Every structure is written in C-alpha cells, then in structure tokens.
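Hi all, posting the design record for the shared folder.

TITLE: backbone redesign
STEP: 1 of 1
STRUCTURE INPUT:
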C-alpha cells in the first residue's frame, strides 16, 4: 500500500491552479459509439443520454477525455477498468476542489487552535 505525505501549501496551491485551469465542471461519463471509436467511454461536459450516439450525432467539443476507444485500439487499459476510470476522472472535477477547500479549512482551524493554545 502506498503511503502519502501531507501536501505542502505550495503543492496545494499548484493542485488548485491545475483544477481552476481545467475545463469547468461538472463532468459526466458518456457511452458513445461510432465506426471509428467503437464503444467509446468518454468524459463529457454534458450528461449521457443513454442512446450510445454515433458521430456526428454527438458534439466532439463536449468531450474532455476517453478511457476506451477500441477501433483502432489506442485507448484500452489492460485491466479493463474503463468505466471505473471514467467515473474517477469525471468525479475528480468536482471532488478535487472540494478536498482542497476542506484541507485549507482544517489547516486554518488547526492554526487558530495553535494560536489559542499559545495565548492560554
């Protein structure tokens, strides 16, 4: 199991900068299909319709990333966790900013508690 060191303030700032620079959210998983992508699992700025649209019936400008493109096979992770990876990526768009805000809030509380302890 990997162990992680707490992020420094500089690392948190860098993570926040990356999150702010990314395409605005929320992001969603889309299940699309076409003769080139074949069963495309994508991360999109709009929700999935459940119709597995084929291009050109979906707007490629709505796609942020893909976790499965089978024809030709150029996005196809060996462990076959396409849907799980897509869910992780899509959720990261809203989860990372929330986690960063919570870390900052907790650090602020700890700093205030430390000042109170010093004053007592």
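Okay, here is what came back for every position:
SEQUENCE:
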């Amino acid at each position: 199991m990997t162990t992680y060191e707490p992020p420094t303030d500089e690392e948190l700032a860098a993570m926040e900068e990356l999150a702010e620079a990314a395409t605005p959210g929320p992001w969603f998983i889309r299940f699309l299909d076409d003769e080139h992508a074949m069963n495309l699992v994508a991360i999109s700025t709009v929700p999935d319709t459940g119709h597995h649209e084929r291009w050109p019936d979906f707007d490629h400008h709505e796609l942020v990333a893909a976790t499965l493109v089978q024809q030709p096979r150029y996005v196809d992770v060996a462990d076959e966790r396409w849907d799980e990876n897509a869910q992780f990526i899509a959720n990261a768009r809203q989860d990372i900013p929330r986690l960063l805000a919570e870390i900052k809030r907790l650090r602020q509380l700890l700093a205030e508690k430390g000042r109170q302890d010093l004053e007592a």
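COMMENT: The chain is about 40% helix and 20% strand.
Let me know if anyone wants the other runs.
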